[in-house]
Design a protein that fits this description.
The structure is a homotetramer of 394-residue chains. Chain A is α/β, with parallel strands linked by helices and 394 residues long. Chain A has helices at 8-18, 21-28, 35-46, 90-101, 115-118, 136-149, 167-172, 182-189, 192-197, 215-220, 222-228, 236-245, 258-266, 288-299, 314-322, 332-364, and strands spanning 64-66, 69-71, 75-77, 105-107, 126-131, 153-157, 250-255, 271-274, 304-308, 327-330. The first copy, chain A, is built from 16 helices and 10 strands.
Chain lengths: 394, 394, 394, 394
């Protein structure tokens, strides 16, 4: 399936055309009024770049070493559950694409494909996301599987003490149990290819061992799922315990404040992912780009700081790095690519971003990621003060 | 009538579908150009929350004690006149719903159902709103009735020295006397169920003793109504006099400045409601959330500060409390619920807000309302300065 | 012709319905991209009012004494040329309406009705606007006529060294000579009543003595018109000379800076009208409300400061006065009224504003215009910082 | 072909009507999400002018001397490649129009008409734009041709180390090789006049000597084109070398920072063009007007500072000069004029801007460009603080 979308935005529109509404909304939507979802993207547009000229930029290098492994671009794949909803290839397609692009794939615990099914396809670092379950034997079991599968880094998601409310899903009836509105059901029937791709129904591959395979079964084991996914009683002590169990790189995902960054570093994490869960948890929190500087300042080099949320452009990547992130992760972009073109679509998404980062580096006068610091950001001076409104209609 | 709206916004749209335009506009509209009406809502979206993670939030408690009575959530029902326009159940449905939800209902003096008809249905604190009438015997009479009915707190509205102009009502001809435009009348005829619910025409239940039953009669007694409702000569002395008459909790509603908060406290009020009458009085005053901090600072703990206006989300509640309010009141949301589903609809509105507050608490890392202070608000730092305009169209 | 529009905005829409497009655009439009035209209105919406409660506002008084004459409201009629385009009644209707409302009417030199035709209908102060013509005998002649007609104050317009370009007029072909586009001509033919009202074609009544009666003749005397209207060589010396010729109140209109206010006061003016010619001269200058404070500060009580531009609401009037204006003038509102309902329409426009000012006074806690100062303006404090974008769609 | 568009904006719409979409988008579009493209225009609307009155402005003079040559207005024609796409007349029409208007025309190296074909039509300064090619004999060859052709000034473009991505062109398939979408091709066929004007296909006139004539040949010589156009290894040393080769005025185009302005001056340039390549290179860089003040400050009079990008109005010109630019260049406006009316259309565009500058000078109280400094800019003071949102819909 050839993929020609010239931007991630076009890829998103391709996904919208191919997917039934309920699947697209599941991928695309956010919590509540989606204020944070939109702000994640808008925050990047509020930052202006200050390009330098006439520096030799014939050779640009966007590789980076992260936790001892080299990545070919500063864009990793973020953990996203239920990828099969976006495309049949699911997580295996994702990990293969990441390998082809030379970057890390973070497998969600709520993935459809099991860790053991995904790992053999890996040709780049495989990361694993997990939650701080109260049943510690589940964690230790998963860590054992992770070691066997060659997982490089562990990413603990901490912003789901309870599950956010994605209103689009509720409106569509894309809930457990399914309660599709007629209009939504009719739309599904107009997408027979997608419908066929849902048979057999995707399982939660990593949780099969825990007796949870389908959303239906999850419903039947509501208490179990609650324990597995949203663990409201988790504390920093649980993170410290995970730190003791896992000898490899450990990241915490879902931090938006300097105070929590400090706490996390005190627990021994190696990295912090500034994230608001793609605007899918608490609506009204800052765009991740707005939250980044305080976390970077707090980390003070003691831990790597990454960011996800709203990254749709190579210049977004560059802005995040200029504000102190070491790399970014993309969630929706890889799912748009998966929906638009399977594994090739995911590669296309990553290659788009790579080429945009490369162009941005050249046009900024930088030859490597090391050149991306506060000096490449424009700060307004002089008489042309910013003012709202009053624009002529050109 | 089952109510499934996933947000107050959906409930509003349900109300819009069920009500004829003139009734919906009466509930939904504001004064003049509705600048303040819109700003009330927009102000909440301008505030960003700073969530903390990995605090044990397994048990969240949003109860609060207010003037010696416990409420199960920090959302009370604001006084709104003429509720029967929104739904047949009117005030009785509202007070029953408030009781089911465990929160206070504030009966408007301009309610359709009389205090004595409403009070027996109360299972939670019943509050009474009144105006500072020049005829003091009307006040004392009402206070006697309030005592007999078991009213817990008195809320004196002070922002109606004259009545604001709700332009939608004027345009619709929903005035005294009625002057419906043909288009508006035709729209009413397309809502026979609503039309039937208006027979017999709703009276001003609390004012029957004063000889005012219907808007028609009100017109015939224009002077009386002026004296009853809008009393432009009222002063702080009148408030002091009410204070002497009423031994229970006394609140003043309609304060937007620190100076008036000071005056009110000097008069001995127990609580101040920061309110702009839902944007229905003077257009161009600040959003209540923007006015709140100065009032909280002036009150300095000497009186409880509440807020109404623009609250549509659990996160709005949380933001108001973080900026110093003890609780909020909701007017339109309960009327949307009433229109959409009668008593059950009102319960639904309150339960929506409760569940949203609960989720917000968990996601902020707070286990009780006591945790909501300035620390849960995000303040921008660093390079990603806010700037208007220039957003890509995602 | 009964006029029921509940706001000036509705009156504007009435005018739009009644007038052919070219006439409406002539009244409604501004220079170039109309950035300043829109900003004049928007500036008022950027200001927030701080209402005080429980002050005795039973009696409100919006009269003011201006240059020794009492006006019944702080809203005067601004000079506007060619009023006959908006309605047959023209300037006579305007001056009669102003008299009925108890406020001053400023007759434009470019009026259709001559000073001598207008003056007998005056029952309130009549003001006369004029330009600083190079031919001083024209000025002295007009001043003689003004004295005989009982003109109270003279208003010298200084912001037309050259004439601004109103692009709507150019696009419509409403130029000298007429070059109507077919679409525009067809639209005129659909308004036969308006077309008849243009016969006989309106003359420039005040200039007949100078040999200029119609736009056609004006064209034939291009040099003369240039000398009469736009006098680019005028300087402060010319204003000083007028000051010597005129013993009554003298105002200068078209000042937007403190420096020019200073110069004008040094020339002996009694009043300064902060004006950008209704956004019809230089596009891109500040909204008059934004320019007002610096002029007020510069005047420092040595001259009255008035404002025109963008006033559409009683709260706009109140905001201008709170920022230091003594009164405001309205141009388009009176022409909308004239188009919508002739003399009665103009009265309606003024009475709308009067009732809105009255309501605003009451709701602000003020009993007279003297109470309108910086204290009635809200200034943001605390945590709810303003931020653009990101509003939920309510 | 008579051209009557009253503004550059109308001229743009004329161009849009006459050109097939792919040609219009080629002229009109920018890089990526076009954030900078829009901001270039919007930045001018954010600046407010402070007009002074009653200064004798009977004679306005907008001539300026630039590098020893007089120009009749402070607006020059910017270099734009492939002008034949906008209109058959191409560069020759442009240079003739510039001569008629009395201003400089900057010929792009990527022009269709060769320098030798253009030069004979010149009656005003002819400037030449070029890139810093790695093959220095190409540069020296072109400089020799420039001397023979009487080129006055040399403008070295430095913001194309790699070529920006104009997404509209990619979406249209207006790429090398052509890959037109059916919809786009059909649209071309509906413009037979334009299609005929493309035969014979335009060559890159200046590069014929290098063996590159058409886009097709350019493709066949991809390496060569890369060397000719985008030279990522160019450094300040290359600029210094050009300085040594060229005895006439030398400008550098594409500078947005004070640091690069300093470097350029150290290399001996005579002028700096603040430019973001019309928003066609790196999206997300500042509007040129926002970047201007820092460059002006850095230049400190040691080099002339010019600006291009977003200039559509005489007031835009005035604002740029008030912020320190000596003159501005216009790219799209001349191409809109070319598309709308050939050579006459270009003259029309320049005369529109001239008349707008003239009117702005008069209305600002200035008689020459020397009067345009910070004093003509309005800076907000007092109570009417800027605030977003909340505008009534007038």
């Amino acid at each position: 399936m050839p993929v020609a979308a010239p931007t991630i935005g076009d890829l998103r529109r391709d996904a919208q055309r191919r997917l039934p509404r309920l699947a697209f909304d599941f991928v695309d939507g956010g919590a509540d009024d989606e204020v944070t979802l939109r702000d994640n993207v808008a925050a990047f547009d509020r930052v202006r770049l200050a390009p330098r000229v006439l520096r030799d930029v014939a050779r640009r290098d966007q590789t980076l070493e992260l936790f001892g492994r080299e990545l070919s671009l500063p864009v990793l794949i973020a953990p996203t559950g239920m990828a099969r909803v976006a495309g049949r290839g699911g997580d295996v397609a994702g990990v293969r694409a990441a390998g082809r692009a030379g970057t890390a794939f973070t497998l969600s615990t709520m993935s459809n494909d099991a860790l053991e099914a995904v790992a053999p396809h890996t040709t780049a670092p495989l990361w694993l996301q997990l939650y701080l379950w109260p049943r510690r034997e589940v964690v230790t079991g998963l860590l054992d599987r992770a070691r066997r599968a060659g997982v490089h880094a562990l990413m603990v998601t901490v912003d789901v003490p309870v599950i956010g409310r994605r209103v689009r899903d509720v409106r569509n009836g894309f809930t457990v149990p399914l309660a599709l509105r007629p209009r939504v059901a009719a739309d599904v029937l107009r997408h027979p290819r997608w419908l066929r791709s849902m048979y057999p129904p995707p399982t939660f591959g990593n949780l099969v061992a825990e007796g949870v395979r389908t959303p239906g079964e999850a419903l039947a084991h509501a208490e179990l799922v609650t324990q597995l996914l949203a663990h409201p009683a988790a504390t920093w002590a649980d993170l410290r315990w995970v730190r003791e169990q896992w000898e490899g790189p450990l990241l915490i995902k879902g931090v938006l404040t300097a105070a929590d960054a400090d706490e996390a570093i005190a627990c021994g994490v190696d990295g912090i992912v500034v994230s608001n869960h793609g605007g899918r948890q608490l609506d009204g929190v800052p765009a991740t780009l707005d939250a980044l500087p305080a976390v970077v300042e707090a980390a003070a080099g003691r831990a790597e700081v990454l960011l996800d949320g709203g990254v749709r452009r190579g210049t977004d990547v560059v802005k995040a790095l200029a504000l102190g992130a070491r790399a970014v992760l993309v969630g929706r972009p890889w799912l748009y690519g998966l929906a638009a073109g399977g594994e090739d679509g995911v590669v296309h998404a990553l290659e788009l971003l790579r080429s945009e980062v490369d162009r941005a580096l050249a046009l900024l006068g930088c030859t490597s990621l090391a050149g991306l610091d506060a000096a490449v950001l424009h700060h307004a001076v002089g008489g042309a003060a910013e003012r709202p409104g009053a624009g002529a209609a050109w």
